Amino acid sequence: MDPSRLPRSFRIVLVLGIALLAAGAGLLAYRWYEQPTTLTIAVGSLDGEAGRLVSAIAGKFAQSKAPVRLSLVQTPGPLESAKAFASGKVDLAVVRGDVGDLSQAQAVIVLAHATVLLVAPPGAAISDVAELKRAAIGVIGAEANQKLIKVLTDEYDLTRAGVTFKPLAPADARRALDAKEVRAILLVMPLTEKYLSLLRNVFSRTTRAGPVMIAIESAGAIAEKERAYESFDVPKGTLRGSPPVPADDLTTLQTSFYLVAQKKLGNDLIGDLTQSIMNARRDLLAELPALSQIATPDTDAGAYIPVHPGAAAVYEGTRESFLDQWGNAIFLAPMIAGGLASVLAAAWKFLRPIEAPSREEALDTLYALGPRVRAAGRESELEEIEREIDKVLRTQRAQPVEDDKAERAVTAVNVAAHRLENLIHDRRIHLASRQPGQAESQVESHQAESRAES
Question: ∠ at Cα 338 (335, 342), nearest 5°?
């Protein structure tokens, strides 16, 4: 069907509908592209501090309209977070390097370093784990510290030495020490003022002497066998006091809290997450000093928890530039624009009103039909030419006759049409003469028409 025969109003509505549909599809595609990706993150700690920090970061993401958002899944502690991560229930998790199954984990950032502290009450005559005999050690966060307990037990043969470990809640630590239910306390914590203050408050203040920090002199050997740990020296005077506690740098173990991501997550997504965390850290550092502990994970190929490639690209400055990411789109944009221009041109041609040819153009059209009549070899060709003549005449009839010049043009068109009709008539006779029995009837018909006209 010829689109030009459709009513103009219908064509306008049709093109507007198509344009609105295309605009709606484009808007939906843009909103889908710009929509931030929400990642679930398992986080938990005994005091809830890890959850507060991650919640503040998540809030900053939303405030700054970051491309990534966080949905928190609160857990009792790092062990439960590691379990949720290993089961694939969450995309991210805050975990401790020595807790749980981290085989599918890739590091995004280091949230904090946690130091292993073994502390005895003032006056204890113990300087190294090897000197512990038949002692009960209270363990804060015992469930998460099972690997640490095993490592110390195997390294120092504590089972043979009669050393036992007793789970303790943080609130019960001081009472257990005062009642001599335990001889020392084992805990893993960041060396920040908040946690050091809590540790100092565990011990009685009735004496001038400070608590005794017990060294783990075999920390280097343990770290070689267990990559989740590294040897670390607690600085002199970390617990303050006079004399300072410890009196000199003290060898012990250290592990780290990581934000880890599933391996399946894309590099661009984790790159956006890493950059957003760094931006949030900068903005929140004044009100949350604990964020100063955030550090870059080990980017070496042999790292204990390998860094996610997306995060590594941020740290190493190798993220793809705008041109790298959008070069193909920029190259294709002119081609797409050209295609759109063609579509718009076709739409304009489709919409614009049909302009009737002038009478001069109509006359030229009729003159051009003469050679076609003479060359016609079939009746169907002549019928097609007659239809074209009728179309020209209908179009011209619809145009107003305003002056003598227009009237003369109408007369010329009618004369040309009449001449063509005669040519068609003669051509039919010629074609019929080729078929026996039809030539005479065609001639008689032509003569009758001539007499009628005269």
Answer: 140
pLDDT mean over 18-22:
75
CA separation for the pair 231, 255 (Å, rounded): 9
Question: Tell me, what amino acid is at 413?
Answer: V
Q: Is 290 helix (H, G, I), strand (E, B) or coil?
A: helix
**End-to-end alpha carbon distance in the chain:** 43
Reported as a single tens digit per residue, the pLDDT across 93-129 is 999 999 999 999 999 999 999 999 999 988 888 889 9
- Please compute the mean of the pLDDT values over residues 427-435 and round it to a whole number: 80
Q: What is the Cα–Cα distance from 71 to 39, expressed in whole angstroms?
A: 6
Q: How far apart are CA 169 and CA 140, in angstroms?
A: 6
* Winning range, highest mean pLDDT, from 89-98, 197-206, 332-341, 424-433: 89-98
CA proximity to 274, closest of 60, 103, 91, 68 = 68
- Give, as one character, the DSSP assignment of residue 260: E
8-state DSSP, 7: -
Residue 133 phi/psi, 5° resolution? -135, 130
Question: Which distant-in-sequence residues (6+ apart) come within 8 Å of 191 by Cβ?
Answer: 113, 115, 234, 238
271 contacts 66 by C-beta, under 8 angstroms: no
Residue pair 44/78 in contact by the 8 Å Cβ criterion: yes
Tens of pLDDT along 302-312? 899 999 999 99
CB 214 within 8 A of CB 86: no
For residue 401, is pLDDT > 70?
no
| Rounded distance between C-alpha atoms, residue 274 and residue 115, angstroms | 25
Those residues with Cβ within 8 angstroms of residue 324's Cβ, 6 or more apart along the chain or in another chain: none
270 membership: H or E segment, kind and range: helix 267-284
* Distance from C-alpha of 57 to C-alpha of 69, rounded to nearest angstrom: 9
- For the record, the structure tokens of 342 come out as 């063609």
Residue at token pair 């504590």: 158
Question: Token pair of 242, please?
Answer: 């006079």
